[in-house]
Design a protein that fits this description.
Nucleotidyltransferase, domain 5, 2 domains, two-stranded antiparallel sheet, globular
């Protein structure tokens, strides 16, 4: 959740809150959003609603992405979440998700390229708010964790290689390779942020140090190898990493590496901005015009 306001024809973000409710957990195998996932997300919605009230937020913008797009029981789940939040939630397409993420990372009047690794999908987008090209791939860190390493298979021989091969095939078979990504490519969400923290030896999240950090493919591969090799207990003891995403981080690194290799990217720039910032930028930008 991000909170922003319009000041002197510019958007200023005044607060940012994080939560990892794992709405898409087990969605791949069951086709539905489970009761435990709904309960966690309802708790997050209540917390966000309280933050909004304390900060005297005038307008709440909320969207649902991959989990709500794909769940067969979204018609039941959506009203529950909307009631907890106290605001409507729009289920958006992967293309619109990519556009809004781009808007959050590069702003409303700039060009750029973004890789966004979510729980249920990965979006790759290049261009500007008005003119852009994007692909949405069924490559999510929660989704592929459930499929490839659920039950403790993470350290088994060949698991990571099979995962990387699958990711590369999905990228190559999509339109991602035709995107004009240019020289600078940003990567957003928990995976690149966590890798930046590991590479920097950071034990406490520091947005100023992480935002804009250049993460090389070599560094990503190094940390990915490490994450796939250590025990569950060692994984959970990693300092500074969000406890809510620690078990999906290894798969997230494989997705990022697979995308970078397929698109011949030697490095990416880590961004702490994303979809939530793009929602605000887009809404206020339209208000300006």
């Amino acid at each position: 959740m991000a909170v922003g306001e319009l000041r002197n024809s510019d958007v200023e973000f005044v607060a940012d809150f994080h939560s990892t409710p794992r709405l898409g957990e087990s969605l791949h195998s069951t086709g539905i959003i489970g009761a435990a996932s709904v309960s966690r997300c309802v708790q997050s919605m209540h917390e966000f609603r309280e933050h909004a009230s304390k900060l005297h937020v005038e307008k709440i913008l909320a969207v649902g992405t991959s989990a709500l797009r794909n769940a067969t029981n979204r018609g039941t789940v959506l009203p529950i979440l909307e009631s907890a939040l106290g605001a409507p939630i729009e289920i958006i397409s992967g293309q619109r998700e990519a556009m809004l993420t781009l808007c959050g990372v590069v702003g409303v009047n700039r060009h750029g390229s973004v890789i966004d690794i979510g729980g249920g999908s990965t979006e790759i987008v290049s261009g500007s708010l008005d003119r852009h090209s994007a692909v949405s791939l069924e490559l999510g860190s929660v989704l592929l964790t459930d499929e490839y390493i659920a039950g403790g298979h993470r350290t088994e021989t060949g698991v990571k290689e099979k995962l990387l091969e699958f990711v590369s095939q999905q990228v190559v078979n999509s339109e991602a390779l035709s995107l004009d990504v240019g020289m600078k490519v940003f990567a957003v969400a928990g995976t690149p942020v966590s890798l930046a923290m590991l590479e920097l030896g950071m034990q406490v999240f520091d947005e100023k140090a992480i935002h804009g950090f250049e993460l090389s493919l070599t560094a990503a591969e190094k940390w990915s190898d490490y994450l796939f090799s250590i025990t569950e207990a060692e994984l959970k003891r990693l300092p500074g990493i969000d406890r809510g995403r620690i078990d999906i981080l290894p798969v997230g690194t494989a997705i990022l590496i697979g995308v970078m290799r397929s698109m011949l990217l030697n490095s990416i720039l880590v961004s702490t901005k994303g979809l939530r910032h793009g929602l605000i930028n887009n809404y206020l930008f339209k208000a300006i015009r």
